[in-house]
Amino acid sequence: xxxxxxxxxxxxxxxxxxxxxxxxxxxxxxxxxxxxxxxxxxxxxxxxxxxxxxxxxxxxxxxxxxxxxxxxxxxxxxxxxxxxxxxxxxxxxxxxxxxxxxxxxxxxxxxxxxxxxxxxxxxxxxxxxxxxxxxxxxxxxxxxxxxxxxxxxxxxxxxxxxxxxxxxxxxxxxxxxxxxxxxxxxxxxxxxxxxxxxxxxxxxxxxxxxxxxxxxxxxxxxxxxxxxxx
Length: 230
Description:
Blueprint: E1 12-16, H1 21-25, H2 30-37, E2 57-61, E3 73-76, H3 79-84, H4 86-91, E4 95-98, H5 104-107, E5 113-115, E6 117-119, E7 130-132, H6 137-147, E8 152-156, H7 188-192, H8 195-205, E9 208-211, E10 222-223, H9 226-229
Parallel strand pairs: 1-2, 1-8, 2-3, 3-4, 4-5, 6-7, 8-9, 9-10
């Protein structure tokens, strides 16, 4: 188990999730989005439009680490994500952290991945080598940022809802073409359950959390558009 160091004491951290509002918030042109969705270009094609946060402390949740080397930390919790992205994860040379309960899948592949104990309760764990799962990787990443010692967390792409075009994510990495005829099982109701306890724990710890997705279904944090935060 990794005893998390306070590498960002009293500073600000941005956490990039998977919600589609990133496209609008960073004014990414439709033609670039189309090329990324069609896999004609990589996800890093979005990177120039996020240049204003390149110099921030940034945690990329799941696929967000592919935005570029300016992502300081890759955090993931799902074993499926790891298995599908092994080669790309191996190429990422910044900090890699997980609470994947199937540790044996990581141990043989990378010694560089930092492993944390996953607690099944919601909220923010203060145990040095533990993290509250909160039923999704994005919410768990908030706990990681708290361990790093930050006093302000800005959430990007934490929508917990579909956009007007019925997109669940700002990318198409999770598209399952084999099951297109099957009704989509949306995880939002489950994912939302941990945030009230996170908000309560953050207040006790003196951590400010701002949701930079104004249309987000998460209602327990103050909301501000990115243009107001930059």
